[in-house]
Amino acid sequence: MTEEIIIAGFGGQGVLSMGKILAYSAIMQNQEVSWFPSYGPEMRGGTANVTVILSDQRISSPILHVYDTAILLNQQSLDKFENSVKPGGVLLFDSNGLTRHPERTDIRIYRVDAADATAKMDSAKAFNMVVLGGYLKIKPIVKIENVYKGLEKSIPARYSHLLELNKKAIEVGQEIVEKVSG
Fold first, then answer.
1. How far apart are CA 125 and CA 3, in angstroms?
2. Distances in Å between the alpha carbon of 80 and those of 28, 96, 102?
3. Residues 62, 85: contact at Cβ < 8 Å?
4. Cα(180)–Cα(151) distance, rounded to whole angstroms?
5. Which one of 91, 110, 139, 154 has the fewest beta carbons within 10 angstroms of its own beta carbon?
6. Residue 48: partners with Cβ closer than 8 Å, 6 or more residues away
7. Is CATH 3.40.920.10 the classification given to domain 2-181?
């Protein structure tokens, strides 16, 4: 089993940490992992993406041009990576702020309205965990208990009080993800 993922959006959406939590989760399952971030110099608001590869076999390169799954969280990312999903692959998006939705017919497309959900939860910082929950509902490639362990490892001690909120956000994402097509 190998899963090649691109997660892309604005800086500040938790793109890199979502990838890191997936990577930690897979390590706890004795899988091979690659986590390859890319971001602009801006702290918030610039573009950010991360390529994550999870595999039962040795990973030869972290550099990919096509992906099994694309998690796209803004219009620029959708425009850039929609055509990089392998036929039969998965595209997951948050519709907040999009001017056009995904149009491909040879992939499975899902929507998770994470921005709306975190507004209802009154916690924008949980956005990435809602998205991660949606992804794990579609593709349960790591065990949820390992995701929680990865979350504990990723959250700095000063933010440990947010652990339960993030776990709840994962559950919310699993509940609200919707298949759009494919």
1. 26
2. 32, 17, 11
3. no
4. 28
5. 139
6. 8, 9, 10, 11, 13, 15, 16, 37, 38, 39, 40
7. yes
Q: For the whole model, what pTM was predicted?
A: 0.93
- CA atoms of 70 and 85, how far apart (whole Å): 6
Q: Over the stretch 19-56, which tens digit does the pLDDT of each residue have?
A: 999 999 999 999 999 999 987 765 566 679 999 999 99
Instruction: Read off the pLDDT of residues 119-177 as tens digits, 9 standing for 90 and up.
Output: 999 888 899 999 999 999 999 999 999 999 988 888 888 888 889 999 999 999 999 99
CA atoms within 13 A of residue 85's CA, in its CB half-sphere: 26
Strands (E), the chain: 2-10, 32-39, 47-55, 67-72, 85-93, 108-111, 178-181
